[in-house]
Structures are given as structure tokens and as C-alpha cells.
Design a protein that fits this description.
The structure is a homodimer. By secondary structure, chain A is of the alpha/beta class. Chain A is 25% helix and 27% strand. At the A-B interface, strand 3, helix 7 and helix 8 of A face strand 3, helix 7 and helix 8 of B.
Chain lengths: 577, 577
């Protein structure tokens, strides 16, 4: 079948020119760009006064962060003009191991959004993380044969690369030997250390937040991914990269973007609009989001309106506003005047799907599991008042940052087991939930501001163990057990009652519902947290989700207790222990 | 082992900047670009005031046209700064079939010049060509597993692509399905035909001779290879491509370059110098010859001075003159102050080598094999004077072009069998020499200007049958038999004497000797032809080599007689037959 897009203003990403031209599509491929007649095609679409743009590519995204299944995500981003994404499924791989990757591959097969996959390089993220399993080079290796697998995902283990860790080396080697891409992740690394990191074969970076960092990476041969996500927003700092010397080595990515942001602001189209709003050339932004992303990943014959190229095509009413009207994916119209077609959910093995949806492998917990006791103390009540006065390390949240500080302060273990709402000292627990180990890391946290009840969630980077923050052990136990029952999600509890919850039953990370439902649910749960006293400046679940990630300084909580991130070692909760 | 190039002016092909910097090499890879100390390395080279440039890449070359073996070619071009070439071995494949490709691969393995191979797509070039064998997709397919094979070579069968010829489709499919490159060859094709040709998956073109042609190709997504060879010199016509919109989709290639040109003018460095002489930016020319060529062929981590990149490095005394001083290939110094190191000849299977060196499969010919007789005439002498007067189609050479014209004129078959030196009507023969078929195409040629004797050669595009031009049959037979005895080469004969010869025993195409010897021999043979009356404006052997290529209009000679190239059909020598 042949479709003719007649009289459009075609954006040529090779030359940066806009040409009045017809575009002829046959099946999934563009076969002509120039002057064509109505008898050349079966279907004629008059696109006069409209712009024709290649489909957009997100070069680095974690689907799990959108809380949506691949199909539900596809519905959202296709409407915003994204026809291809390069996904790193490392969240679900931490929970479900290789089956997490199989889930993402299976559930994105043959859908109109082209979902490419980078194999997760760091599962678990660190030696302190208790993920479901450790993924070794030999686990990943067979997946390079899958056509949609483009390489090795963000290599976060920067010390491992520099020290020549054999496991790391092997993973990089397997990708490089196949002439595939190895994505990087090395914020603030510079000079000789950056040289060594890049020399290991790492070809991109999405952690740049300023011009100097980004320019050094381009000079040293990396692709710079300009990231604009929900939490990390780097476009503004990287606007100087829209510069003749550097622009051709940059692409646009979202990394982590929440469903409400996707629905309200959009996806890669949103980054293009922001660039234009900041005075940058829309053509340059489009080139970054199309042909350059394709080049970065060696996606040949993708990312341009040219003969032989895959017919991923956007029809835009306006260029500067970048308002997507129609979308073609492989020559099929999937968005018509803003409305997305139905997408059939791909089938995956029933048993696999069942396992993905029942990823909580932990026993129920009880109130007493949350009691903090010093080493050798069997019974808190038996302690003297003096003994119960202990100096502890409290994790102090720094507002609007993922960084934390260590706050050493005195608590009374016999009074509410150290919880002190007045001083904003709450209890924190990270419960291992992959392998029935029964490990629970217990401690205190300050800066969240909860005044009553407890909150819990299964999204907690990167191992996604069960994380709970509470004002009392009873509500904490109820919250934890409720998440276990849901097989993942988030919950707000007060006085033994569930006030609000949201189920994320795909690995405890993603919902099965559509984006609008998920965004609304997410909002409701968050609002309920604010009713329990948390100030609105704080995004409680996102903040909580990073309390367990021991790669961001200064102090974090693991399933086995506190981690001093800077020293990369365990520390005791009790300062004098 | 670590080598430190200290204080060079490093050309950054990503940004176009020149930075004063140290370059640290470990084994075959660059591991640092920045400030390094003397204790960081085992060997320190002071390169202050010198330029550091990535090794140059020739994106399209036929090694056979240089008449040199891969090792001898390497010695020449390394000294000119070329560290990688992308070779299409279609000449030797026409002679030796798949074993020709094996020869090139085998004899270039692990030499300091990186020899990449594109698999010949058109062996034989046309249905009229009698090559040794026809290479089908199934013959080529296994060779895609060889790491140095980058794709399918120039698809000259443009009508086959447009008509959807199945054999052609299959060959293209095999490369595209592996995400590899398919090189194009479609001079003067434009508009819709070009769209269809490109849409088949063809990603480059090296036949552009003017700006419009080249710009259309860039707009349509192809890489434009700016060719500057011995015969075809397109740089001047394509200077407008050194333009901000188009330059990043162009690379530099030589295609066919003779040994004397390589020795006297150089290789890719020569094209860079010419571009500079024409007022173009040396940095742009370098980018075309390095990182862009690497991108075109998806050679990751090649073509730049950056961490992780292969240590193919040039040290230049001067940038505008582009004078190469030292060359490193994979971190080993292979050129020191202009002097090339010894290169060990790679071993290939003895039997294979023996077959490559004995590629003449024809019987000896005799004087009478060269006699032109009309259909049904057993004996020329028995013809009447009137019968012997025949109107024939003479191939008329157009000076300085590969094009020919048909000249219809009267000859007397009984007088010197139609040869008429006064009117410059000489005899021409193309003798099948691959499969003992005994086929000999006979006719007349004008425009060479030979006054005595005969010349013969085994280089005759693209099938490389034995081609002979002479003033008498006796000398023609001697010339032909001498070439057969040499197993290939060129020869000049007069009055039953060999005046000069040159042996090309590798498939009848390449010599085993070094470039200087080959260039000198080539010159001597040519000079001897001039002594037999050929005007110096004519390059006799190059002209002769294209008389048998039935893809260049208007009329050519095959082993089975004349071909009307425009009609793509056989025509009789006799106008009235």
C-alpha cells in the first residue's frame, strides 16, 4: 500500500533545510521525497501548510519510572511524536533479574512505538544493594542476539571501570566486541579519570549538568545526552551545547519522567519546545532528537525523511510550538489529529507474566520487626533510662535534592523507640523483599515531616526493596504488609487504616492501568501524605525512593543498615557502637 | 606499553578545534588526551610545534587499480598518512571469484594498514561480461561474518535495482539485515529514479561530478564520497560541498589511483592538500577523511584523537601542507620521519596463492584467430573485391574520456583484413581467458594512433579478459600469448619482438614488486607505446582497459563481439549484417 503526503514542508535533518515536497510511503518505508502525483499512491493526504518531521527518539529512558507498561507508555508518547525509545530496564531487572528484561522485550514487541533495549550493566547497583539477583556478563550475553538490543546500558559502576574490575570489563567487552554502544553515567568525573572511564569503551553520558562537563565529553568523543526528566532537568544548564561546534554530538533524553509530567508537558516534544523557548533553533533540536540519536545508536535508515528510511513520520501544524497532529509509525498512521489508535497488548508467556506480577518474596512483618534495639539488648523495656539515651545517625533529607546528610543526635529508645515527631525524627525501614532473607534495615530519618501514620512504597532505587517511613511501628507494619499484598505500589496509613493506595503490580514498579488513571492515583496518594503533615515542597515518594540508593552521598539505608556513601562502607546506627 | 606524545597541537575532529595537549597511548588504544606527565608512560615523544591528527581513511578504493599487493600498497599509503582503507575487491573477484576476495582478506590480515572489505555486488558487471564466475548472494553471505567486511560494495547494477531484480535484492537484503552499508554507484541518476535506487537501501555514492548531483544525494540521506582518482577527478566539481549544510555528509575517496600517482602526489593527503589549495578548510577536509568516514561505515572508536579510540595517529610538521612525518597504527609507530617500517607479508594458503597467480585459463592463440571474416565466409582470399568492401562499426575513442562513439565506415577485408593505419583503423580483440571458452571478440578501433606492432594487457574492466590492439595479426598473437605466459600484465610488440613488458601475476591485475618498481615498469611500457606512434595525450593502457566495459556508452567490445551500451544489446560488426 502506498500513501502520499502531498505538499508538506519537509524538515531535512541532513541539511537543516525545509523543502516543500511530497513524501511517498510504501508499506513501512519512505520511497520518495520530491514531486509525486496522485496516481503514484493508493491514499493521498493533503498536508499543505503543515510540517513533516521524522519521528522523535528518546535516547535514554527507564520505562519503569513512568509507572506504565510499554503499551500504555506507547499510547502517551506516540501522541507526543515519539516513535522510538531506547530503554534501560534496570529497575525491573533488579526485581526480576533476566526475566525483567524478557518482560520489557516481550511486552514491547511489534507495537507501534519502537522500543530498543540496552542491557542493564549494574544489577545490583552496588555491593550493598540486595537485588533479586546479580546479573553477570554471561546472563546478558545471549540477549545481544535480539535485534532490538543496542548495547550495554549506563555503566554506573565508575569505580569498577577505573579499577579494572573483571566483571565490569567482561560486560563492556561483550558489547564493544559486537560494535555496539556502551552508555555511560559518570556525573562530575573529569580530566584523567574521565579519560580512563571513556577509554574503557564508554560512548555516551546523560549526567552532564553544565556546559564545561558536557563540552569535555564531546571533545573526548562521547555523545552527550541532554536530559530533561521529572527530577533531573539539565536542558537549561546545557543550552550552550546548541552551538555549531558541539550540537551535532548531542541528543535529547528523558531518563526518568513521571506519568503526570508526560501527560501534562509531553515527552521529547516538550524538550524541543523548551529549547525553542530558550531561543534555540528548532531545527537543531529536531536534529538532536532524530538523526543524531539514530547515529549514536547506529540505527541505520531511521530518523530522517528520506528514501529508504523507516516511515516514522510526524505531521505538525506548527514548527515552533511543535504541536504534533498526525503520527505514522513504519508507515501506519497511529495518531490522527492527536488521537492515538488502539494498541494490542503483546502476549508473553503466562508463567513469566505471573512471576513478574508476584514479585514480593517476603514474609509478613509485625510491629516488633520495627523495634530498634542496640546490639545485645533483648528487651527495650528492660533498659535503664540512661542506657536508653543513645546517640544515633539520622538520615537528614536536603530539600529538593537527592543528597542526604548525616545528623548525629540523641534519642530515647524507651520513649516511642526513639521516634520524635516534634524534632521530625521518624522511623525508617528498608525491608528485603526478593528472597525471603528477612533482612530489615532500621533507622531514623528527618526532613520528610510526617506527623501521623506511615507511608510505604515498593519503588526504592535501585533494588526496589520495600521502604517504609512512619511515626509508629503499628502503622508501619500495616503499610508494609499492604504493599506486600498489592505485590507493589504505594500506601498511606493512619491509625490502622489504609487512607490511600496505588497498586504497581508489574514488578512492584509499574501499573497495568492507563496513564491518566495512574497519574491521578499517584496524585491522590501524594495528597493524602500532605494531609498527614508533610510540607508540599516535598515530593514524598520520590524522596523516599532515593533514600535507599547508596551511590548518592552522604548516608543511605540498605536492607542491612546504614551506608556511608562517601566511604562506601556500612556504619552503625549508634554512634558509639 | 605506554607512549606519551608530549605537547602536540591536537586536531579535535568532533569540535573542529585545535588544542595544545598530550596524548597517552597504551597498546593499541588512546587512553588519555589532556595533561600527562613523563612518569605516565614508558616512551616519551616530544611533538611540540607539531600537529596530531587521526589516521586518514580512504572510504572507497580498488586495491587492484594500484597494481600493488595489499602490503606494497600499505607501505606507500601509510607514508602518506592513510591508516585505513575500505576496499572493494571486485576486479580480482571477476578473475578469481570468491578466492579473489579471500586473497585480499588473507594478504591484508594484521598488517599496519587496516584493510576493510566491501563484498563485490556486481560480478560480472553485466550480462555481456564473461568473468570467471558469477557471484551470487549465497556466495557472498558467509563473508559477512568476517569482522573486516563492512557491507556490500558499489551497486552498479542500477537497472537491476530499479526493476527489482531478485538476485540484486537478495544481495542488498543480506547486508541491510545485518545493519551494514550498501555502497552506491549511480552517475547522473536523479529525481524519482534516484529515490527508488536509494530506497532499495543504498547508502552512498562516489560517482557525483557536480554540486547539484551531490547535494541531491545528501538531501536524500546518502553519504557523498568525493572521489579524486587517477582518471576520475571530482574534487574540483564538488568544492561547493565544503559547506556548513553539506560537509558533514561527505567523505574522501580515491576509487582508482595508479602507482605513479600514489608515489608522486600521494593518497588521501593529496586530496586534503588540493582542498586547501582551493581555499577550503583543512579541518573540514580532515573531518571528512577521518571521523566522517568512520561514521559512514560504523567504525566505532576509529577516526579521532580521543580516549578509547584506536591509536591511528599522524604527526604533521605543518597543517596546511599536510606533510606527514610520523604515523602510528594501533599504537605502533610505522612511519618515522617519512620512512616506513618493514611489513611482513601475511601467509595465505599455498594452493590458493598458486591459483591466484595462475589465472590464465586460455589456449594459445595464433595469427588466424585474429582474422575478421563475415558470417558464412570461409576464406577471405576467396572473396571478390566487391564482397570484401564492408561497412563496419569502428569503436572511436573520445580523447580524455572513457566514452566511445560508433563510427560507421568502409573497410577492405582483403587489404590487411581491414586494418588501415593511415585512417587510424586498428584491429581490436577481446579474448576470453577464464574458462577456455575460446571466445574472441574481434573488431576495429580508432583513436589510439598506434603505427606499428601491437599492444596487449590483462587489465580490462571489469572481467579482465585479454585485450589486444594491433596493426597486424602476427604481432597481436605474439602479444596475447606473451601475456598468457606472464599470467597477466602488459606488453608492447613490434615485428615479432617483445619491446617492453610488465608482469601482473596476481590475478593478472597486480604485481608482486614494490610500488617504485611497478611505477617505473609501467612508465617504461607506456613510453614504448609512444615510440610506436601513439600521441602522448593518450594513456594507452588505461584507455584500452575501458574499451571492454559495457556500462560506459556508446559502444564497447566483449568476448562475443560489439555491445551497443545505450541499448544494452549486442550489435554486429558489419552494419549490413
Amino acid at each position: 500500500m502506498k500513501i502520499l503526503l502531498k505538499r508538506g514542508k519537509v524538515i531535512n535533518v541532513f541539511t537543516g533545510e525545509i523543502e516543500e515536497s511530497d513524501v511517498l510511503i510504501e508499506n513501512n518505508v519512505i520511497i520518495g521525497v520530491g514531486e509525486y502525483n496522485e496516481d503514484d499512491a493508493d491514499i493521498i493526504k493533503d498536508v499543505s501548510h503543515k510540517y513533516i518531521c521524522p519521528g522523535l527518539i528518546d535516547g535514554h529512558i527507564h520505562i519503569e519510572s513512568t509507572m506504565l507498561t510499554p503499551v500504555e507508555l506507547a499510547k502517551v508518547v506516540l501522541a507526543h511524536g515519539t516513535t522510538s525509545i531506547v530503554a534501560d530496564p534496570h529497575e525491573i531487572a533488579n526485581v526480576c533479574g533476566i526475566e525483567g528484561i524478557e518482560y520489557i522485550l516481550g511486552k514491547s514487541e511489534d507495537i507501534p512505538l519502537h522500543v530498543y533495549v540496552m542491557l542493564p550493566s549494574c544489577v545490583p547497583a552496588t555491593q550493598f544493594d540486595e537485588s533479586a539477583t546479580e546479573l553477570m556478563a554471561t546472563d546478558l550475553e545471549p540477549y545481544y542476539d535480539v535485534e532490538r538490543v543496542l548495547g550495554l546500558a549506563e555503566m554506573m559502576n565508575y569505580p569498577g571501570v577505573l579499577s579494572g574490575d573483571l566483571k565490569v570489563k567482561e560486560k563492556i567487552h561483550d558489547a564493544v566486541a559486537r560494535n555496539l554502544v556502551v552508555d555511560g553515567h559518570a556525573p562530575l568525573v573529569t580530566g584523567r579519570d574521565l579519560d580512563r572511564y571513556i577509554a574503557a569503551g564508554i560512548q555516551s553520558d546523560h549526567e552532564c549538568s553544565n556546559e564545561e562537563e558536557a563540552k569535555e565529553r564531546v571533545r573526548k568523543g562521547q555523545w552527550v545526552m541532554i536530559r530533561q526528566g521529572t527530577a533531573a532537568r539539565n536542558l537549561e544548564g546545557l543550552l550552550p551545547m546548541f552551538n555549531d561546534r558541539y550540537k551535532h554530538r548531542c541528543i535529547l533524553v528523558t531518563d526518568d519522567r513521571h506519568p503526570s509530567d508526560l501527560l501534562e508537558d509531553g515527552h521529547i516534544d516538550n524538550i524541543i519546545r523548551l529549547a525553542v523557548k530558550n531561543g534555540k533553533s528548532v531545527i537543531t533540536a529536531i536534529q538532536m532528537a532524530t538523526i543524531q540519536a539514530a547515529q549514536c545508536f547506529n540505527l541505520r535508515l531511521v530518523g530522517a525523511i528520506a528514501p529508504g528510511y523507516r516511515a516514522d513520520i510526524l505531521v505538525l501544524d506548527d514548527l515552533e510550538q511543535f504541536k504534533v497532529r498526525d503520527v505514522y509509525s513504519e508507515g501506519e498512521q497511529v495518531v490522527d489529529n492527536g488521537k492515538v489508535v488502539q494498541i494490542e497488548e503483546p502476549w508473553i508467556d503466562d508463567d513469566l507474566y505471573e512471576r513478574i506480577c508476584t514479585s514480593f518474596h517476603m514474609n509478613e512483618v509485625s510491629e516488633k520487626d520495627f523495634v530498634i534495639k542496640p546490639e545485645g539488648v533483648a528487651d527495650i523495656d528492660g533498659m535503664s533510662e540512661e542506657e536508653a539515651q543513645r546517640k544515633v545517625r539520622v538520615i537528614k533529607i536536603i530539600e529538593e535534592q537527592l543528597l542526604t546528610q548525616e545528623w548525629q543526635t540523641q534519642v530515647n529508645l524507651k520513649k516511642d523507640n526513639g521516634i520524635d515527631i516534634e524534632r521530625d525524627i521518624l522511623k525508617l525501614a528498608v525491608i528485603e523483599r526478593h528472597n525471603y532473607t528477612g533482612h530489615i534495615g532500621l533507622g531514623y530519618i528527618s526532613g520528610i515531616g510526617l506527623k501521623e501514620g506511615a507511608i510505604a512504597a515498593s519503588v526504592s532505587h535501585d533494588s526496589h526493596n520495600l521502604i517504609v517511613i512512619g511515626t509508629n511501628e503499628k502503622d508501619m507494619a500495616l503499610a508494609a504488609n499492604h504493599i506486600k499484598k498489592l505485590e507493589g505500589g504505594s500506601v498511606v496509613v493512619k491509625d490502622g487504616q489504609i487512607l490511600a493506595d496505588m497498586q504497581l503490580k508489574i514488578g512492584g514498579l509499574m501499573a497495568v492501568e492507563p496513564a491518566s488513571y495512574v497519574a491521578e492515583k499517584n496524585l491522590k496518594v501524594r495528597e493524602m501524605v500532605y494531609e498527614l503533615g508533610v510540607p508540599k515542597e516535598i515530593e514524598p515518594f520520590m524522596t523516599m525512593a532515593f533514600v535507599s540508593l547508596p551511590v548518592i552521598p552522604d548516608i543511605k539505608m540498605s536492607t542491612k543498615g546504614l551506608i556511608d556513601v562517601n566511604k562506601q562502607e556500612r556504619v552503625s546506627l549508634f554512634v558509639d557502637e
